[in-house]
Amino acid sequence: MFKKLVGITSALTLTLGLAACGGTETSSDSEGATKSVGEQVDYKIIGIDPGAGIMNLTINDVLPGYELDEWEVVEGSGSAMAAALKKAYDKEEPIIVTGWSPHWKFASYDLKYLEDPKGIYGGAEDVNTIVRQGLKEDHPDAYKLLDQFQWEPEHIETVMNLIQEGSEPAEAAAQWASENEELVSTWTEGVNEVDGEELTLLYVAWDDVIASSHVAENALESVGYDVKLVQVDAGPMWAGVADGSGDALVGAWLPTTHADYYAEYEGKFEDLGANLTGTKLGLVVPAYMDVDSIEDLK
C-alpha cells in the first residue's frame, strides 16, 4: 500500500521515535494504508495513444486476463502519460502507467515494472526498420545505410535524455553522433555519398522514436541526403510506407506493439530487421508503491 508519513505530536514520543527509528515512522492507520491499490488510483491506468499496441494489449488482453473488470485504461499520448507520471512522482502519489523500455523516465525516476506472471505482455520486443518497396533500386545507398543502422538501448536512452533535458532532437542527435563516430561509421561503411537526393522518414511522437528518427536523419544527411522528417500517428506511418508516400520508418515495435499494422500492410513494405533489441512492455509504477504484480491489482 502507498504510505503517508505522519507527524508525531508528542515531544516525548518524538524523542523516543528519534532514538528508535532515526526520526521518522510510517503509520499503518494513515488514510492511504487502508485503501486497495485500485482505490488509490481510482481504478485507472494512464495510457498513451489510442490504437497503440500496448494499449490494445492492455485493454483487450491484460485487463480480462487478470480479471480486472473495474479498471480503465485512460487514452492520451506519450507526453501526457509522462506529465501525469511526473506530477504524481513529485508528490509521491500512487500512479500506474503503460510503460516501455527504452524510455527516459527510467533514468529520471525510480520505477519498476509490475510482474506479469501470465506472460500476457510477452517477452522483449525489437524495434525494426521498415522501408517502402523499391527503395533499394531508387536509393541504394540510403537502403544500405538503413540496413546497417543498429544500436543498443543505452545509446538511444542517451539521446532521449539529452532531449528531455532541453536539447532540440536534431541537436541531441548531432551531439550523440559526434560522440559515437565509431558506431556511426559502421552504418555508413560502404555507403557512397550522394548529392541532395530527397528522402522522407515517417515517425510517431514517442520519445524513443523521435530520438531514433533524428539519429537516422543525421546519419543519412552526413552522406548527402536531404531528409524530410514527417510526424504522424502510427496508422498513417505504416500506411505511408506501404503506399510509397514515405520512404522508411525506424520505429516499428515488433512483434507486439505494431502487430496489427504489420499484418494489415504485409507484402507492401520491406522489413530490414531489428535496429534495436532488448525492449520491454508492461505496467509501470513508482518504486515507492507497495505493489509488485499485476495480480495484486485485483
Describe this structure in words.
This protein has about 300 residues and is of the alpha/beta class. The chain is built from 13 helices and ten strands. A three-stranded antiparallel sheet has the order 3-10-4, with helices on both faces. Strands 8-5-9 form a three-stranded antiparallel sheet, with helices on both faces. Helix 8 packs across helix 11 and helix 9 crosses helix 11. The chain starts with 10 loop residues before the first helix and ends in a 12-residue tail after the last strand. The relative contact order is 0.19. The N terminus is likely disordered.
How many β-strand stretches? 10
Helix fraction bin = 40-55%
Radius of gyration: 23 Å
How many helices? The count is 13
Under CATH, the topology of the largest domain is which? Answer: Dipeptide-binding Protein, domain 3
Main sheet characteristics: 3 strands, antiparallel
Task: Offer a few descriptive terms.
alpha/beta; Dipeptide-binding Protein, domain 3; 3 domains; 3-stranded antiparallel sheet
